Amino acid sequence: MSERLYLYPIWIRLWHWTNxxxxxxxxxxxxxxxxxxxxxPIIRFxxxxxxxxxxxxxxxxxxxxxVIGNAFTPNGKxxxxxxxxxxxxxxxxxxxxxxGIFTHAEKPYPVTKDRKFNPLQKVSYLVAMYxxxxxxxxxxxxxxxxxxxLTNVFGISGLHLTALLHGIIGFFxxxxxxxxxxxxxxxxxxxxxxxSMIDGWH
Amino acid sequence: xxxGFRKIILLATGLLLLSFPALSQDDKEIPANVIQxxxxxxxxxxxxxxxxxxxxxxxxxxxxxxxxxxxxATFYVSNHKSFVCTDCHSSDYENFPHNGNLRMEAKFQCMDxxxxxxxxxxxxxxxxxNEFHQSVHSSRHDESFTCWMCHNPHxxxxxxxxxxxxxxxxxxxxxxxxxxxxxxxxxxxxxxxENPNVLVTHDWLPNQKAHFANxxxxxxxxxxxxxxxxxxxxxxxxxxxxxxxxxxxxxxILMASLYKYQVLEKRNKAxxxxxxxxxxxxxxxANRNIYLNIxxxxxxxxxxxxxxxxxxxxxxxx
Lengths: 202, 318
What we know:
Chain A has helices spanning 10-34, 45-72, 86-98, 119-144, 158-183, 192-199; strands spanning 152-153, 156-157. By secondary structure, chain A is mainly α. Chain A has one domain: Fumarate Reductase Cytochrome B subunit (Up-down Bundle). In chain A, strands 1-2 form a two-stranded antiparallel ribbon. In chain A, a hairpin with a 2-residue loop joins β1 (152-153) and β2 (156-157). Chain A is elongated, with a radius of gyration of 19 Å. In chain A, 21% of the residues are buried. In chain B, the strands form two sheets. Chain B has a two-stranded antiparallel ribbon. A two-stranded antiparallel ribbon of chain B has the order 3-4. In chain B, 16% of the residues are buried. In chain B, a hairpin with a 4-residue loop joins β1 and β2. In chain B, 42% of the residues lie in helices and 5% in strands. By secondary structure, chain B is mainly alpha-helical. The interface between A and B is large, with 37 and 34 residues.
């Protein structure tokens, strides 16, 4: 039995679950809007619009909590990444996930007090949190205030391009969510990582 | 590098020069009737008119009734720009002062000229007339509600077929509706009812401003008809479109109304469902890229497959 580590302070847990619920609401309402069909509605269109708008605004606010929290608490250090040797470490972790995990090999980057994330987690969280999310916020707020968009970009409505980008990023975030939830089952037990995010202890 | 730059300058200059003849030709085009009509516009084209009052023996300046003032610039770009005023109005109007009885003269109606004429077959005026008579504009008003109420013969300009800028068409067409529905004077010419405030009656519309700027009133307030480009069957307000998904779906009604002309002209772009919407706006649920849909489905399929296979092997190797 390895040492128990308190890795998830209360603010991270609250932020995380708020973030998770809002993302799920946004994905479901977003899919319902994008593929709206009067015969098979996932959620009634006007309700989906309201849900998506409210959840989007709340997610933006929660994002500021995340950024400010990481800037002013020790949690930010877990996201620091060194480019040197990154590819090798990513490869090592990928090999573990695709082969080692089935042969019960040692984890190449086990969780410690100073290393909450393995290299693959770190890179995927960085991309999701500091690239995809800002982009989806910018495009989302652009869609919330359509008059702020460029009227025409090379013959195509600026609003259309914004929406297209919003949809594509939304898709990538959805994929991230799927993979993230699945990988959370790869803990000591299937539910241990979920439990950690409830009581804070790893 | 220098030669390339020169080529660009030469090409740009050439294009600029090529555009001049077209511009100047339009600018110089003077309608044949302009001289004949000038006699009328001299008084009816301005807020004031002056004439020599023989009884008083002096030049008199008077105010023109604002409802009889017509902007000549607007007239000469309108559908009826080639008309001489007396084509529709009695030639007795050429005499001044006008005979008072001339005001009793029956005015021409659209169908007097446009009905049964093969020249206008593509517009299907008979169909439009038929729709108009079924619409609330005709059925809930007396005969004084004519085509002129919406289509001012002195300024009306067809827009849905001849503009690339759909925003202009939308603004122009909506202004026709708002001319009565947002103007108490014009509204009460036809009814004693209180004119409802369109902003209040449409306050349920999310992003009201964007909707008003990007769709015409008739998109929701008329019944579409395949044989007419612009529907004229104005429905009772209870039957207006109120379900978002009627526009916001792949089978959007906008494709049979606002974007009908573009659809007919087949201005589609490969891969985009309802591609006509692309240039002007974005309608959630109606704009879809078929290729992106396929790519996203395939990628999602692989993710699910990967997760399934991975979890099965994990269970087996436990």
